[in-house]
């Protein structure tokens, strides 16, 4: 498997970033939904701190991924794919990227407006995006919450489309994002 | 007779140092703690102080400060709510903290030490307040600081006692604008 993308397959960098971000976002979503219910305790504070640190990690990885995407060519879409599907896929990917920015930034803003510090895994401190501000805090929380549902819907569409390509259309779309054998396989 | 009355009044004046009235709008009582390795600042929005002080009469001086623990404000709603709760200030059961000092030492020109007792959460421990006293034409200013260990007063019980989560050391700072009491 190549570092870079080929016409037939996403390369190691693109795949690594894709799956790492996917894993982190799924983890963040579950923890994010549950952590509010925890009784107030040092454990809750630590769970929030981890949610924030992983969220900032996703933000950094998404920036890296966009830079890599600008630099690296992308594998070809299946030739038989209708225009409207190509457009819908492009729109879904664009919105996914947008939400991958909206979620960490609204979380960061919420944290700043609530006047909590932001330390990345306890190693260094990130600057506050605003001073204490209860109105901004409420707004940022709302964006973070609505953003979650939009992201969840986009995720379902994205993953559903990948499975549909693989099991119904039986093209290489999902294999392009999987390591190993896809590169060796001939076109179906 | 008049002379005797005057002498008595003079004596009464010597027994106690001058009394001062705090201007609440121009005064503050703040604290700085650490949580998760980051410092945060807070203040008590409500406190009263009875200050009797004369740099030339430390023996007749006395401080008494009463602090409404529920007025603690760290500009963070979640943290403030936790601070007032049973594991921290326990403001419902212990609404008032107090600081009383009756012994004073000189610590340099214009600088003094109050060897007082802080009562917080019902626990009384000695706390030294270092302060600078600035006499002004129209009044006086007191700029003071003290350091205390939150665990001496059981601030943060149970799992919250962990000093890695919340530092033990708390720096208290105060600035009082004082006018002569009438």
What's the tally of helices of chain B? 2
CATH superfamily of chain A: Transmembrane di-heme cytochromes, Chain C
Number of domains of chain B: 1
Which fold name fills CATH's third level, the topology of chain A? Fumarate Reductase Cytochrome B subunit
CATH superfamily membership of chain B, which one? Lipid/polyisoprenoid-binding, YceI-like
Name of the CATH architecture of chain A: Up-down Bundle
Q: What class would the helix/strand composition of chain B place it in?
A: mainly beta
Radius of gyration of chain A: 19 Å
Distance between the termini of chain B: 26 Å
CATH architecture of chain B: Beta Barrel
CATH class of chain B: Mainly Beta
Q: How many E-type strands of chain A?
A: 2
- Which segments of chain B are poorly predicted (pLDDT under 50) over 5 or more consecutive residues? none
Question: What shape does the CA trace of chain B take?
Answer: elongated
Question: Helicity of chain B, in percent?
Answer: 10-25%
CATH class of chain A, named Mainly Alpha
Summed up, the domain count of chain A is 1
**Nearest-integer average pLDDT of chain A:** 93
What is the N-to-C succession of helices and strands of chain B? HEEEEEEHEEEEE
Strand content of chain A: under 5%
Structural class of chain A: mainly alpha
């Amino acid at each position: 498997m190549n570092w870079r993308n080929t016409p037939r397959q996403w390369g190691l960098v693109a795949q690594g970033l894709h799956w790492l971000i996917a894993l982190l976002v799924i983890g963040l979503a579950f923890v994010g939904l549950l952590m509010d219910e925890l009784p107030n305790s040092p454990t809750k504070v630590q769970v929030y701190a981890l949610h924030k640190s992983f969220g900032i990690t996703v933000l950094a990885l998404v920036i890296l991924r966009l830079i890599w995407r600008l630099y690296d060519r992308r594998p070809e879409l299946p030739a038989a794919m209708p225009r409207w599907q190509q457009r819908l896929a492009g729109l879904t990917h664009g919105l996914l990227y947008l939400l991958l920015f909206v979620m960490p930034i609204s979380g960061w803003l919420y944290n700043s407006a609530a006047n909590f510090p932001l330390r990345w895994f306890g190693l260094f401190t990130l600057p506050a995006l605003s001073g204490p501000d209860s109105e901004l805090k409420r707004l940022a929380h709302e964006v973070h919450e609505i953003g979650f549902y939009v992201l969840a819907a986009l995720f379902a569409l994205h993953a559903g489309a990948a499975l549909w390509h693989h099991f119904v259309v039986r093209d290489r779309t999902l294999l392009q994002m999987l390591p190993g054998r896809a590169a060796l396989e001939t076109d179906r | 007779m008049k002379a005797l009355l005057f002498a008595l009044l003079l004596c009464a004046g010597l027994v106690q140092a001058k009394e001062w009235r705090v201007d609440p709008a121009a005064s503050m009582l703040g604290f700085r703690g650490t949580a998760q390795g980051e410092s945060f600042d807070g203040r008590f929005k409500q406190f009263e102080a009875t200050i009797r002080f004369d740099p030339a009469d430390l023996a007749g001086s006395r401080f008494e400060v009463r602090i409404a623990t529920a007025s603690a404000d760290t500009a963070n709603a979640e943290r403030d709510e936790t601070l007032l709760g049973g594991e921290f200030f326990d403001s419902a059961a212990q609404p008032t903290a107090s600081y009383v000092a009756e012994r004073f030492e000189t610590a340099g020109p214009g600088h003094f030490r109050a060897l007082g007792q802080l009562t917080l959460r019902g626990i009384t421990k000695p706390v030294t307040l270092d302060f600078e006293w600035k006499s002004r034409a129209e009044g006086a200013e007191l700029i003071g600081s003290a350091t205390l260990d939150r665990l001496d007063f059981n601030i943060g019980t149970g799992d919250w006692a962990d000093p890695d989560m919340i530092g033990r050391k708390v720096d208290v700072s105060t600035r009082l604008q004082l006018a002569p009491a009438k």
